[in-house]
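ESCALATION

Customer reports they have been waiting on this structure for their group meeting. Please prioritize. Original submission:
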Amino acid sequence: MNPAIRAIRMIGLILLVGGIASGGLGVYLESNLACEDGYGVTIETIEENRTSSSAVERLSFQNLSSRDQRTFEEILTSNTTQVYHNASTVQNISNKEIEYKNTVYITSGLFVTDCFSNWRLYKAGGGLVAFVGGCLTTVTIVWQRRS
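Update from on-call: job pushed to the front of the queue and completed.
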């Protein structure tokens, strides 16, 4: 077998195997990622000796709308950061001091999560690399049989 053909076939096989592995990793990451795009706020307890900023509005929990009360309690009792697809869900309680059950909490400003997912690159790039590797391997096999 011609050494150039053999080298091209080896490169093709390496690309094929590497592309399949990369694409497989992309599929695995896609199925296991917990990151979500959306909006949210964080809630912290205000310590007794800490003075609040005058720019932050102080509200009583009872003065919030029922929707805002549900959202506040959901975020407060959750073990993970809650992310909402609609900014208006958390906009009314962001950057506020809220008195709830004799404790004052401060909410952060509205944050946006934008998950750039590497799995898309692995999946698409792996597929492309595997395709090129498969083409190189096939061309060398056909070339060898015709010679």
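Sent to customer with the following note: The chain has two domains: 1-22+117-147, 36-114.
Escalation resolved.
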